[in-house]
Amino acid sequence: MKNKLFVVFILIALMWRMGDGLAKGVGPINGAEGEIYVLDECRFRIADLSAGTFSVHFGSPAVTGTYDFPRASSFSAIDFSGLGPTFFCLAGASRNDIENQLSARRVNGKWVSIDTGNPFSSEHNFKEYSLAEKNWRGVGYVYDDQLFQNKKFRILNICLIETGGRQVLCVNAPVMNLDNRGIDRLPTLIRVLKSIEFVH
């Protein structure tokens, strides 16, 4: 009898946890107009996945999202070594919080690396990105940098800031292995980002 009660208690606890998780909005939820993705306090739809997939990961200390590009060729996995765009929620973030997430800030009209305190040099091929879609504006940049194993990548860092709201969705994404410039994932990722809409 004690074993049966214990099993019932565990089942009730699991059901309560699942219900609590949905109440807080974790993971993908099917809404009337399509799937809603939830990362902590950020809730959004992605209208155009461009044949890729989006998944939510319940890590510690934060929930993150990952976009997986469609496999363009047998070389894609090698070129990016499993690296994909990672999404973070910074709900209610201050300008300083956003700059820290981007690892850069504007100083006297120039973007400066937070890591070095210096403006980006010509070898970084720095390019600012400003986007404005649906109910957000995006601020960020693309630059070239070494990630690991002496490999250089082109990287997009951008934050989508909800218009008139507190949701901020930031993305860090290697978009090109500079040893193989034949695969440029930036246009696909920009298309995906432009299709995002924050919901409540």
Description:
With 200 residues, the chain is an alpha+beta fold. It has one domain: Protein Transport Mog1p, Chain A (3-Layer(aba) Sandwich), CATH 3.40.1000. The protein has four helices and 13 strands. The protein has helices spanning 2-24, 76-80, 95-102, 186-194, and strands at residues 29-31, 34-39, 42-46, 53-58, 63-68, 86-89, 104-107, 110-113, 127-133, 136-148, 151-162, 168-177, 196-198. The chain has a seven-stranded antiparallel sheet, with helices on both faces. A hairpin with a 4-residue loop joins strand 4 (53-58) and strand 5 (63-68). It starts with a helix and ends with a strand.
What oligomeric state do the depicted chains represent?
single chain
Beta fraction: 35-45%
Largest sheet: 7 strands, antiparallel
Total domain units: 1
Stretches where pLDDT falls below 50 for ≥5 residues?
Answer: 1-26
Characterize the overall form.
Answer: globular
* Secondary-structure content class: alpha+beta
- The CATH topology name reads Protein Transport Mog1p, Chain A
- Name given to the CATH architecture: 3-Layer(aba) Sandwich
Helical fraction equals 10-25%
The tally of helices reads 4
User: What value does the Rg take, in angstroms?
Assistant: 20 Å
Secondary structure topology:
Elements: H1 2-24, E1 29-31, E2 34-39, E3 42-46, E4 53-58, E5 63-68, H2 76-80, E6 86-89, H3 95-102, E7 104-107, E8 110-113, E9 127-133, E10 136-148, E11 151-162, E12 168-177, H4 186-194, E13 196-198
Antiparallel strand pairs: 1-2, 2-3, 3-13, 4-5, 5-6, 6-12, 7-8, 9-10, 10-11, 11-12
